[in-house]
Write a structure and sequence with these properties.
The protein is mainly alpha-helical. Helices cover about 40% and strands about 5% of the residues. A two-stranded parallel ribbon has the order 1-2. The protein is globular and about 50 Å long. The N and C termini lie far apart (about 35 Å).
Length: about 200
């Protein structure tokens, strides 16, 4: 972590919800609020999900190669829908793919920006993970951590419309402001490079 990043996080630690002299949340306070709303337990490698399901070495080789080949295709966007009965190992495949994408850098020049844009593992056993109300807030939190260059813009969007972090806000509004718009900001940055991946598990829960 750089010195600037350490200073930034130290500032956030001073107050749970920093405010400006006008009484309105500052941009730093907006990021703190997003951090509170984002569901950390929905991330593929969260402690909440331990022990993590994972494909054992030498298993699901053909399936994983097929998925990786689709995710490496720079010519078109891909929507991969993995389906099957409960217990066949879909979550293990999702975790294994997420782990691989997290290990791949967008470019050789960076150690921060990875090809895993975000993950959300739903679960009917967890209040915040069994609803889509926190879905886009969680994804954009991960995306802005992966691409610090868009964090300021994400803060501004939420600062101007705090209701975006309300789980009862229409999903179409959250999707446009917290997902599609940040991806448009990254369009030039990502042009010519490998595609980003977002991995969602147990959407039916």
């Amino acid at each position: 972590m750089s010195e600037d990043q350490c200073q930034y996080f130290h500032i956030l630690s001073l107050s749970r919800s920093p405010t400006s002299l006008t009484g309105l949340p500052t941009l730093e306070g907006t990021w703190a609020r997003l951090s509170q709303v984002a569901v950390k337990g929905a991330q593929y490698n969260s402690r909440e999900r331990q022990p993590h399901p994972k494909c054992l070495e030498g298993t699901r080789v053909d399936l994983l190669k097929y998925i990786h080949r689709l995710l490496d295709d720079r010519q078109k966007n891909q929507l991969i829908w993995l389906h099957g009965t409960a217990g066949v190992g879909k979550s293990a495949v999702a975790f294994t793919v997420a782990e691989r994408m997290r290990s791949l850098k967008m470019t050789e020049e960076t150690n921060v920006e990875k090809r895993l844009g975000g993950t959300f593992f739903f679960s009917r056993e967890n209040t915040k993970r069994r609803t889509a109300g926190y879905f886009f807030a969680t994804l954009v939190y991960q995306l802005a951590n992966n691409f610090p260059s868009i964090r300021k813009d994400v803060n501004k969007v939420i600062h101007n419309n705090p209701a975006l972090l309300d789980p009862d806000t229409p999903l179409c509004d959250q999707m446009e402001a917290l997902f599609l718009r940040p991806l448009r900001w990254l369009r030039l940055r990502l042009r010519g490079g490998p595609p980003l991946s977002f991995i969602i598990d147990a959407l039916d829960e």
